Amino acid sequence: MSATADPAKVNETSKHPVKIGDRITSDVVVRLRTDEGGDHWFYCHSEILTKKSKYFADRLSDNWPTCQILDSRYCVEVYCKEPDLNFHVSILRLFYTPEPHSWHNVRNALGILQVAIHLGCPQMSHACVEYLEAVPWEEADEEEILRIVPGLGPEYEQILARLQPVDQSAVVGIFISAIQFATSSPPTSMKELKSSAQEQLEYMLTEDDDAPLLTSDNEVIKCEVRRCVKDLLSRFNIQVETLVDASHDRVQHLRSLLCDISWVSQILNKMEMIKDLVHYWVDASIIIVSTVEKLHSDGEMLETKLKITEVASKVLEAIGLGNVILPTVKRLHMIRVWLPYVQKLRPLVERRNVDDDDEEVSSVRMENDIWQGLESAFVSIILTLPSSEQADILAEWLRSQHVQYPDLTEAFEVWCYRSKVAKRRIATVDEMSNVKSS
Q1: Pick the CATH number of 7-163 from 1.10.760.10, 3.30.710.10, 3.40.630.30, 3.40.50.10770
Q2: 3-class state of residue 39 by DSSP
Q3: Is the per-residue pLDDT at 297 higher than 80?
Q4: What is the rounded distance in angstroms from the CA atom of residue 106 to the CA atom of residue 136?
Q5: Contact by Cβ (8 Å): 183, 229
Q6: Across the chain, how many H-helices and E-strands are there?
Q7: Is the pTM of this model over 0.90?
Q8: Are 40 and 93 in contact (CB under 8 A)?
Q9: What is the pLDDT of residue 5?
Q10: 42: DSSP letter
C-alpha cells in the first residue's frame, strides 16, 4: 500500500500548515533507534517526508515490502548511532521549517549534512555545503571538517577549498608583497600591520612539524629579498649620515630602521643570505659607531645604541660561527670597532638601571642572551686572528677598566696554551717535513 493510504489526512496537510508531532494529522511514525537501545517516536506526515527525502520516499512507496503499519499509520524505522541522534531529530524538524534554515554552527551543519546525505536530501545537503563554505571556521572546526568531509564523497570536496595547498606561484606572490611591506617605512598607525607581516614571513620560512612554504633556493624570492634589504640598508645609511642631533623624531626613525634590520637578519639567516647584511655592516661600522658616540646618551638614545648593539651581535655571531667568511683584516677590524663600543656601553646601561626605582628615569634593557652571544662571538673571532693580534687585544682588555665585560678569559686561556706549546708544535711539524723531504 502506498503512503497516500489515508486521503483525508493528506488533504488536511495540504490545506493547512502541519507540525511535527501533530498526532491528529500525522500518517507516519518515524522511529529513531540508536545503537545504545534508544527508541524515539516522531509523528510525521508522508507528504512532507517523501518530498524532502528520497530515503523516506522509497520506504513509503509500494515497492517497499516491509513497511509496517502501526495504529493506522505507516512506521519507518531509522537506525543511527547515539551521538548522531540529535542531528536526525534536527533534520526531521527542519523538514517542517521554511527556508532559509538556521544551522547554528559548523559542527551542527556537519552533523546534519551527514544525515542529509544518508537520507537522500539533496536540497538540504546543498544548503549545508553553502553554509560551510561561507562561514568562518575555528581551528577545532577545521579538524572536524578534515575528519568528516573526505569520507562523504568527491562531490563534497569543494568544502575543503580553503584548506587545499596553494600553487607555488601564489605563495611567491604573497611573499614578495609581504617582504616589500615588512621592510618599508609606513606611518606609525600601521605598525601592528607591519609586525604581523613580519611574523607571517618568519612563519612561512620556518620548518616545524611541516615543511616551510618556501625553500631558500628560490631565486625569484632571493632576488626580491636582496633588493628589499638593499633598500632598507640604504635608508638606514642615509639616516646615520644625516644624524646631526638626537631629536625625538630622528631617533625614533633610526630605531625603527634598526628594528627592521634586526628582524630581517632572521629572514636572511633562514634563507642563508646573512652575508648581504654582514658585508654592509662591516663597511659601515666605523661611521655608525662614530656617529652615535657623538650624541648624548639619554634614555631614548641609549635604547637606540642598544638596538645597534643587537644588530651588531647578529653580524658578529655570523662571523664567529664561520657562516660568513671574511679575511683577517676585516675580522680584526670588527673587533677593533665593536669591542670598545660594547665595553663603554655596558656600564652606561647598568648605571642607568641602578635608578630603576626612580619614576622619572625609565630603565633600558637588552636581553641577557644577546650580551652572552656578543661575548661568545668576540671570543670566537679573536681566536681566529694571528697570535700577535690576539696578544694586543688581550693586553688592552686586561688593562681596561671594563675588564669585567666582555669576559675574554676563554680566549686568554687558549692564547696562553697555544703560545706555550707553539715552539714544540712547530718543531714537530718541521721534523715531519724534513723526514718527508728526505
Answers
A1: 3.30.710.10
A2: strand
A3: no
A4: 9
A5: yes
A6: 17, 4
A7: no
A8: no
A9: 41
A10: E
